[in-house]
Amino acid sequence: MKILSIETSCDETAVAIVEAEGGLSSPNFKVLGNALYSQIDIHKEYGGVFPMLAKREHAKNLTPLLVKALTEASEFIETQNNYTEEKWQEIKNILSREDELYDDFRKVFEKIQKPNIDLISVTSGPGLAPALWVGISFALALEKLWEISVVPVNHMEGHIVSVLIQNEDKEQVKFPALALLISGGHTELVKISDWGKYEILGQTMDDAVGEAFDKVARMLNLPYPGGPEISKLAEEADALNIPQKAKLPRPMLHSNNLNFSFSGLKTSVLYYIRDNGPLSDTDKKDLARDFENSVVDVLVSKTETAINETGAKTLIVAGGVISNKKIRQSFSELTKRYSDLSIKLPTKDLATDNALMIACASYINIILNPDLKNRTKNIIAEGNLKLK
Ligand code: KG4
Ligand code: ZN
């Protein structure tokens, strides 16, 4: 089955074309086209993602990215179509909430042959509502144009299944599985009894891990996104054997549940800077390292509790923050302590937001429920969509 997928939940605009096969027992994904544009440089000035700017950028970039993905997949075939004015009017209505998308869309897709694609999938949440809407409107316009069904995808389910895309790792996910999702917007421990059966065991009460990294980086005058900057400083602290001076708390470590909290940790960093400032470069490296260690201690400890409680056989850790080297290593070490637990981590490219994981999630969902293709409800953006 060939799937065209679209992701616009935050600051990455992504379009992919994936050939999926193998069913639920041995799903296999071949990437035919993959086009992604990161808006990070645009949002850097604001120190974070600015929703209306993200929306405008998605609208500007979706059409060229789709053309790129179609070209890669050898599905870009120029032709002169005879779509009726009535059809264009309907498409114009679908795209009416997105400024300037219609003109571009018509100019380009009027001259492209309908591609050989079975399904279109699009992220419908969670994320920034104005950003999500652009992707949804675009997908629905394509559905109208090409008469190919659109199915909505939960972005967090996308992060979970991102680990299925590495082709060299043939080991299947065994159930019950446990997923720790760590990104700029989420920190969640999820029990997976089977594909499509999710239960949130714990989550952050305030800031997400990635958000805490970004905010601490800002306090140290480092650019957005802060995660990679903090981890670079922390690595330097280790490499230079800088003695440990900062002693930050390990929030919620001994709470009797699987929830997290990172806003107190962030405040501790703020006080540390206030009481010890101005910090030297060495002090900053030391502080970044202790912050990272605090995050690692809490994430690993809660995950260990959840493994023991669920009897998980596969541990998945996904989301942008799993690009962090120390976090990757710590989870690999944790897994070694269990004889019948294997770990699956996405590669760096698949850890941050992308459209491949959205295609992958829609494949799993369409197998579980083929009726998804015959939609009875409108697809709407759900900024706070939960896994269930
Ligand atoms: O999953 P993602 O690409 O987007 C969301 O859905 O949020 O995650 C982005 C987050 C940002 O907060 C970024 O600072 C963080 O992932 N991140 C990192 C690292 N690389 C990215 N955090 C810690 N260490 C890293 N190396
Ligand atoms: Zn994400």
Please describe the structure with a list of short key phrases separated by commas or semicolons.
13 helices, 388 residues, 5-stranded mixed β-sheet, 44% helix, 18% strand, 10 strands, alpha/beta
Strand order of the largest sheet: 3-2-1-4-5
Percentage beta strand: 15-25%
The average pLDDT value, as a whole number, equals 95
Counting DSSP H or I runs of 4 or more residues, the number of helices is 13
General shape:
globular
The major beta sheet can be summarized as:
5 strands, mixed
**CA-to-CA gap between the ends?**
25 Å
Radius of gyration: 22 Å
> Using DSSP, what is the number of strands?
10
Give a list of the ligands.
5'-O-[(R)-(carboxyoxy)(hydroxy)phosphoryl]adenosine, zinc ion
What is the string of SSEs from the N terminus onward? Answer: EEEHHHHEHEHEEEHHHHEHEHH
**Helix and strand composition category:** alpha/beta
| Proportion in helices | 40-55%
User: Poorly predicted ranges (pLDDT <50, ≥5 residues)?
Assistant: none
Write the layout of secondary structure elements.
Layout: E1 2-7, E2 12-21, E3 28-38, H1 40-44, H2 51-72, H3 85-94, H4 101-109, E4 119-125, H5 129-146, E5 150-154, H6 155-161, E6 177-182, E7 187-194, E8 197-203, H7 209-219, H8 226-239, H9 263-276, H10 281-310, E9 314-318, H11 325-336, E10 342-344, H12 348-351, H13 356-368
Parallel strand pairs: 1-4, 4-5, 6-9, 9-10
Antiparallel strand pairs: 1-2, 2-3, 6-7, 7-8
Bound molecules: 5'-O-[(R)-(carboxyoxy)(hydroxy)phosphoryl]adenosine and zinc ion.
